[in-house]
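Hey, does this match?
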Amino acid sequence: MPVQKGIKVAALNRKARHDYFIEDTLECGIALQGTEVKSIRKGALNLKDSYAQVKKGELFLYGVHISPYEQGNIFNHDPFRVRKLLAHSREIRKLQTRSEADGYSLIPLSVYFKDGKVKVELAVCKGKKLYDKRASIADRDADRDIERNLKKQMR
C-alpha cells in the first residue's frame, strides 16, 4: 500500500482552545499497538479530558480514548491505556520545565496523519479563568459583527 502524502486530521480537541491559553506547541509521534491505527483512521478517537505528563524523562499521554477496532480479534487494545509519546530528549526536558511552572499543563490539541504516520500536536497551556473565557467569546462576537457590517457595506 503506498504511503499517503500530506496531513489528514483525525481528531481535534476543540475544548482546549476555549479552556486554555496556548503558550507553545510541539509535534510528537505516538507509540501505538495492534489495531489502534485502524481505529484512528476511522475517526474512533476522543481527546476530551486528555493530558500529557513527563515521567522519568519520558512523555506519556493519558485519557485518550481510542475505540477498539470492530473487525479486530481478541487481541484488541484497552481504549484508555497510557500511550508513550515520541520526542527528542531535549524537547521533553523543555516541556518538563515549562509544565512544572505553576498553572501550566500539557494538553493534546489534535491527532493527525502526516505522510502516513500518526502525530500528536501537544501544547503547553495555562488555564483560563471564567472571565477570560467570557472576554474571548465577546471578542469573537465583536469580530463577527464587524465582518458582517463590512460585508453589508460592500454590497
About this structure: The chain has a mean pLDDT of 87. The first strand starts at residue 7 and ends at 12. DSSP finds four helices and nine strands in the chain. Residues 130-154 form the longest helix (25 residues).
